[in-house]
Amino acid sequence: MTAFERVQAARAKGRATSLDFIRRLFDGFLEMHGDRRFGDDRAIIAGLATLGGQPVTVIGIEKGHDARERALRNFGCAAPEGYRKALRQMRLAEKFGRPVVCLIDTSGAQCADGAEERGQGLAIAENLMEMSALRMPIISLLIGEGGSGGALALAVADEVWILENAVYSVISPEGCASILWKDGKRAAEAAEALQMTAQDLLRQGVVDRVLPENDELYDELKRDLADALARLKRLSPTELVNRRYSKYR
Amino acid sequence: MIFKKPKNALESERKDEKAQIIADAPEVEPQAEPLRCPRCLKSVSPTELETTHGVCPLCRNHFPMSPRERIALLADRDTFEERDADVLSANVLNFPDYDKKLAEAREASGEPDAVVTGTCRVAGREVAVFAMNPAFMMGSMGYAVGEKLTRLFELAAERSLPVVGYTASGGARMQEGMTALLQMAKTSAAVRRHGDLGNLYVCVLTDPTTGGVTASFAMQGDIILAEPFARIAFAGPRVIEQTTRRKLPQGFQSAEFLLEHGFVDQIVDRRRQRQYIAELLRLHAREVLQ
User: Fold this and answer.
1) Interface test with A, best of B175, B187, B188 (most A CBs within 10 A)
2) Fold (topology level) of B64-289
């Protein structure tokens, strides 16, 4: 597959979204709404669940499947209150000793006047800073599109995993082509140049693991997420934070 | 003199730009080519701009400033010691035309990349300082910018120094791909560590501060100042207008807009910044707090 075919696969209608993963991987998900500041961003889902018998905090960016859901979820483009909801849940996770799993699928953070007025830049900046120092394990899983700062805002983690047809990039290939070559139609070329496929990212050391999209995917994820979180939880909070600092250093 | 001075504002707004620029030039400085202020559209003499540190005497527009000019304006004379000038970005992705663009930017600016870092004294107090260069590939952040800033915050943490920084950036440098994006995480972690040790970080947002820089260290200052009229944004206005299909109001994403919405502590004219920052440093100095 070419890089752009991977991008198209990551965006394809019918691809499993965060809610699908939440249903398949976790038991008894209890959704928690709102950032306690402004509102509840439906592009980000957060809550509590059980994984392998252990309580965990789950945060996912949700695109929705049909037109109605997609509109409700703003196509998976999160607003500042979405990132603040996620941060609030991560702080509670730290307080109550629950590891965090983040599911990422977004073309990017919401790009709108309201998002700017409520501090989109600040919301992402705070997540990056707070996640870097969170004294609880975090695993981020890229399940579809990983669009720039809007994806990174949930991907400062102890381990970053990616599905084989998911992508992660500093800018969309269309955006890159339109800025550099004034021609959004050269997106396929830009996708190649950006080296944004799972395989490229593994080679660059940006992700720790690529998961094949086969029938065993959910079983494998369920087992390996639980194992990895248990392993990370055995580290002292200081060791954990130092290790995370070195990972991004 | 061939051209007479305009009698009034209306007359000075005529379309004949060339004539007007000459007409508005101060007679005492015939050798200095006048500049047109992009904000008030009046012409100002470069000599006068030098005395105002690049602030338009008519409308207070703040002209772009190089990192070394900024540091010179802040630092006590001859106290700046540059660090990590040898940290360079490379074309690791073999991205088309990046080598050429990087070489051109280096040639044009005489600088290796879009940030200058080091230590200096401000009214006698030692600080770690950084200043970004909006003219170097739009001040974009790639490996060199992220690494120099991270090293600066680490040095400041080790030596218990405050950090004073001037931001100006179009965001992450796309030619470096994910390496550029991950600089946001790296710098944020370093800012956090520096702050966790009780150290002060004062950030001055200058025109333009956008994208990945806004979404990382620009918004992480303990105290965030901004220059008048600076554009401060996450997403640029053109992208927002394309997405929402609505026209944005005048002054959207200006420093004044951000102040009104609670995202910056104060707007400080460039000519008052040194004194203002010196006072902030004094108020946070450990011997003052004890």
Assistant:
1) B188
2) 2-enoyl-CoA Hydratase; Chain A, domain 1 (3.90.226)
